[in-house]
Every structure is written in structure tokens, then in C-alpha cells.
Model the fold of this input.
Amino acid sequence: MTSDPRETIAACATAAGTGGVAIVRVSGPAALVIASAVTGVDAEAWGDRRLVRVAIVDRAGRRLDDGLAVAMRGPRSFTGEDVVELHVHGGAINVGIVMGAVVSAGARLAEPGEFTRRALEAGKVTVAEAEAMLAVVSAPSSRAWVLAQDQLGGALARVVTAQRAAAATVLAELEARVDFPEEGLAPADVGALGGELERLAAAAATLERSFATGRVLGDGVVVAVVGAVNAGKSALVNALVGAERVLVADEPGTTRDYVEVRTVWDGVAVTLVDTAGERAAVADVERRGIALGRARAARADLRLHVLGPGDSIPAEAGVAAAGGGELRVASKGDLGWVTPAGMLVTSAVTGQGIQELRRELIAFVGLADDAEAGSAVLLTERQRAAAELARRGFQAGAAGRLSGAPLELVAVDVRSAATALASLEGDEVGEDVLDQLFARFCIGK
Ligand SMILES: Nc1nc2c(ncn2[C@@H]2O[C@H](COP(=O)(O)OP(=O)(O)OP(=O)(O)O)[C@@H](O)[C@H]2O)c(=O)[nH]1
Ligand SMILES: [Mg+2]
Done:
């Protein structure tokens, strides 16, 4: 989908539901004409970026609502087009009625993310900035928000711009020597070029690794709590979230369907998945519950394997979680049983080990406590893949340089790395990538 700029689009930019004020956003060539139609006054007279008091009226001029309006003329607007915002009363019905008036005056309902897509097409934002905006509005925790705002504030752009400039310098040197070999190249420069390429490869690798933090903070950490029936999994989940969220009972097989409980620890969003305890189940429905839990655990960032008194310790971890890890803890420490050596001991009754376990779970997924404020962090898999391509290109270039490969070939590697860096910011990315990105936006953004 590209956005046809001849069409004027409209959507409610504020969240749905009851609220004091809702903002209906209109963008496109007919924005001012539509604004005039739904307010019954000449919107051309509103000036630029000035709030005016308006009534919203239907075609017959009957009052529907009232509020404030502002016109932002292109190209000095978010989308680069004429934009009008109508600040009206909130509430689903009221907004629906105002939207109905706007559409009957000639606007079309916007697709999810279509305003941002137009901003992108007008060169107002890069793809990486659009990704940062999405990360800001969908941040599940305060740390995810800090990270997203850092990138929106330019942390990633600064690093990528510097790397692109350095790559361009290397490329210019290489190409000069390819085109004018007789000019001669001092041997020291050859070494310096290789060193510079290695430095660029290392910088791209650092960016690539930063996605571990970006992903975990953006998506939140998913921890599947697994183990034998009656191990104390559900009691541990309740203790970890500090509230009675799931059923705990003497009866083995209490948890049937898996249950997801969301919480936030130290600014990190965590989803705990309580699963049905493992045993050679008799009833078909319990077997199905266990299978569902296993499948969910396989998609988690890590498995928290709970071992109670009498449970045997498996030599190997079970199905690996998507993140690859399994952390084992002993439960019911208050019963004074002989817990396995070296294992963190917890108790849902006394609270023993609960705070330590929260910390271990966060540390286990590789989240540094104090990721440097304002540092460049990749937020999407698309960005990570681009950083990987850049790293590979620089590495190949450095290796070629050091092994004395022809400069033309080294230049090809460096050029591919530079192209990857450009695509990281969003230059020349394909329609399919944009479609995927904007599908994740909400309508009105
Ligand atoms: N003393 C003591 N008892 C506990 C503790 N944690 C759980 N229990 C008891 O152990 C029994 C089983 O606890 P659950 O949390 O339901 O166990 P589960 O692993 O979720 O069991 P299933 O859902 O059947 O797989 C209950 O009677 C709990 O009260 C603990 O830390 N100390
Ligand atoms: Mg349970």
C-alpha cells in the first residue's frame, strides 16, 4: 500500500473510549475544504497553527458538537500536506458522529499508520524514526519508553550517520585508488584502511547486539513457569507478582490451561506464564493442557523450572525456550527439605528468595541494569538485520584488505555495508517492509 496523496484521509488520533477530548485528524489536499464544510465557516481564514473555537455541524448546518480547530498548512506539517485537527469532545459515539461528518464532507478513513506513512513519503521522518515513534506509543514499561525516546531523540541516527560518513570516506579512498592506481598508495595507509574497516565492523556489531536490549524491553520478557505437578509453580507466580492471580491447591493438576500474568519489575515488563504441571496424565483434557503449556513455554524467552520436595532433577533441560535458557529454582524452602546444591531456594510462604529470583530472571535475559542513557539501541528485527549486513560487509572488506585482495573487491564489500547502514535508517527499503511496519501502527497515527 502506498498512500495516494490526492486522497484526503481522516481518523481519530486519540485513544478510543470515554475521554474529555478527542482529536480528529484530517490530512490531504481537501483538508481545509472539509474543515470548512464541517464547521460552517471558512477554514482558510483560520491562519496557520492557531487554535480557533468552532462548532461542528452537519450538512444542514445543525450543531453536532463544538470544540477547537487548528490548521497546519503543508509543507510545514507532520505529513507535509495540509492538516486540520478538530479537538472535539471524547466518547465513542461523539467521535463517530464527528468522523461521519468529516467523511461525508469528502475524507476517507485512514489506514493504520497512514499519517506517518505520508510523513515518511514527504521525507519528514525516516523509517527508523517511525519505528521509534511506534516504540514510544507502545512502550510496555518505563525503561522501554526511555529507550524508545532516546532513539526518537536521535541517538541511533547520530551513530548511524557517523558510521555512514566514515564508510563513505573509506569508499572514496578505495575508489580513488582503483581509478588512479598510478597515484600510489603509501603502505601505512593500506594498514590504516584495514584498521578503519575493522573499527567499523566492531561498531556495527555493537549496534547489532543492542537489539537484545531493544527487543527484551520493547516486547517485555516472557517467562514460562514449568515443572512437575504440585511443585509450587502457581504459588511462586503469585509470590513473584505479589498478588493472588492464579489458583493454588493441594490437588495435583490444579492448573489446566496456561495463564499469563503481566507485571513490571524495575521498569521492565514481564509476562509470567503459569503452566499445567507435568505428569503422566490420565485424562485427555489434562494431557492437552500440558501440551499447550509446553508449546507456550517453547515460545518464551526463558523457562523457570520449579523443583519441589520429591521432584527428581532432570539431567537435561526440557524443550528449550525460544531464548534458549532454563533457570531452575527450588520451591517450598520453608519446609526444610534438602534442596539441590547451588540452586536458588524460594518459598511462597515466607518470601524467601523471591526478590533474588526477580533479579536473576531479569539478568538471565541479558538486560544490563544500567544501559547507558542516550545510547543507540536497535528497536526492530529489521534494524538488526541491516546492522548484521553492515557488519558482514565491513568484516569482509577488512579481511580482503588484510589479505591483499584487489581494491575493487574490497570496495564492493564496503559499498554493500554502506547500503545496509542506509537501509537501517530507512533509505531504499521496500514497500513490503513498509507495509509490515505500518500494519503495526494504530489508526490515527
Ligand atoms: N509450605 C509451602 N507450601 C507451598 C509452597 N508453594 C506451594 N505450596 C503448596 O504446594 C501445593 C501445590 O502448590 P501449587 O502452587 O498449586 O503447585 P503447582 O505447581 O502450580 O501445581 P499444579 O498446578 O497442579 O501443577 C499447595 O498446597 C500449596 O499450598 C511454599 O513455598 N511453601
Ligand atoms: Mg498450578
